[in-house]
Write a structure and sequence with these properties.
Shape: elongated
Strand order of the largest sheet: 5-10-7-8-9-6
Number of strands: 10
Order of helices and strands: HHEHEEEHHEHEEEEEH
Radius of gyration: 22 Å
Strand content: 15-25%
Helix content: 25-40%
Structural class: alpha+beta
Distance between the termini: 25 Å
Number of helices: 7
């Protein structure tokens, strides 16, 4: 895979320059493959018709792949994002053929979870897609290769120390260790409930315990996604 750095200069490149300088002279492309709605170049100045004409002139082959359809119509990344934002990770998994996951570095928090009996590994969402805020049953892949079950909250912690940027907080079942600075991958298997504010730490602790019990039940029943 060759990945172009998407900087200001690249974003200003027009469609003709992209085809001539990047695809033809830069990569020496012999054949191109794209979807029917592919657009490229500054302000999406190039489309499949433009690409077909320029590719033919330059002696480059082109295949425009037909869209993949299911019972609801064209399957696209936009549809997958909407499914996740509506709180249906199971449906997203069926479309993707895998569970959608967040990968990031564990940061130090305020240790609030530890004080109420539910220590968490915290990951800032950053540029990740933000799914529906709330509580999920999850699995987490650790750097040592282990994959553990857990319960996670995605949101801004309205009960204690609300944060400006959404945070993924994962309580891993039957785990004791330090993950600070380590990269983890957390897969969302099921949405349990929306994020909400509680009257105090006692109410929050009781709800987390209930969430953890429900997550264990769901994960014990979970099956791998099928295509």
């Amino acid at each position: 895979m060759y990945e172009m750095p998407f900087d200001a200069e690249f974003s200003d490149m027009n469609a003709e320059t992209f085809v001539a300088d990047v695809l033809c002279r830069g990569l020496g492309a012999r054949h191109l493959v794209c979807g029917p709605d592919f657009a490229f170049g500054h302000r999406r100045g190039g489309d499949t018709s433009f690409l077909a004409a320029r590719a033919e002139a330059l002696g480059i082959g082109l295949t425009v792949v037909r869209p993949f359809l299911d019972e609801a119509g064209q399957l696209s990344s936009s549809r997958i994002r909407r499914i996740l934002q509506d709180g249906y990770p199971e449906r997203a998994a069926l479309k993707l053929g895998r569970h959608w996951a967040i990968r990031g570095t564990v940061i130090a928090g305020d240790a609030r979870g530890r004080t109420i009996g539910f220590p968490t590994a915290n990951v800032l969402l950053g540029r990740h897609l933000e799914p529906a805020r709330g509580v999920y049953a999850v699995t987490a892949a650790l750097p040592d290769g282990r994959r553990l079950h857990g319960v996670a909250n995605i949101g801004r912690r309205p009960t204690v120390n609300a944060v400006a940027e959404s945070l993924l907080e994962v309580n891993l079942f039957d785990f004791a260790g330090d993950l600070y600075g380590e990269e983890v991958e957390v897969a969302l298997l099921a949405f349990l409930r929306p994020e909400r504010r509680f009257a105090g730490l006692d109410a929050l602790r009781a709800q987390i315990a209930a969430d953890a019990a429900e997550a264990r039940r769901v994960l014990d029943l979970a099956a791998p996604p099928s295509a």
